[in-house]
Design brief:
Shape: elongated
Number of helices: 3
Structural class: mainly alpha
């Protein structure tokens, strides 16, 4: 089995690809900020729940003490939050709010840094396990 075939590396690679595509779409939004009738776009978030359901076995928290709090089913449910519509529309029908797009770009850049950091750490663990050193 190749390292690139492991589920974690596959998910990290998928996340980096998604973040790259999102960066491109957000940059297009900013570039068209003065285009009449242009509607700001974004891409669908990655559905990691679906990806995790395809994995073998279920993930559950280990209970090592009776004082630990667990859910009845062993799984927590979280609600998803939808992005709201733009709060501003220009008279020409343009829906690009530069401040909002810049915040999304900053969030995307931070997520990319986190994901690449996790990828580097995971590869470092493999190198260490294989007895190899170096960067």
């Amino acid at each position: 089995m190749a390292i690139s075939d492991t589920p974690l590396v596959g998910m990290l690679t998928q996340k980096m690809d998604w973040l790259t595509q999102r960066q491109r779409v957000l940059a297009q939004n900013i570039a068209n900020a003065d285009t009449p009738g242009y509607r700001a776009r974004d891409i669908e978030p990655i559905d990691f729940d679906r990806a995790l359901k395809g994995q073998q076995g279920a993930l559950q928290l280990a209970v090592t003490s009776p004082a630990h709090v667990t859910s009845a089913s062993g799984q927590e449910s979280f609600r998803s939050v939808r992005n709201r519509s733009p709060y501003e529309v220009a008279p020409a029908g343009n829906q690009v709010v530069i401040e909002e797009q810049m915040m999304r770009l900053s969030e995307t850049a931070g997520d990319f840094e986190l994901t690449t950091g996790l990828y580097r750490k995971y590869m470092g663990l493999y190198r260490m396990a294989l007895g190899r050193s170096g960067g």
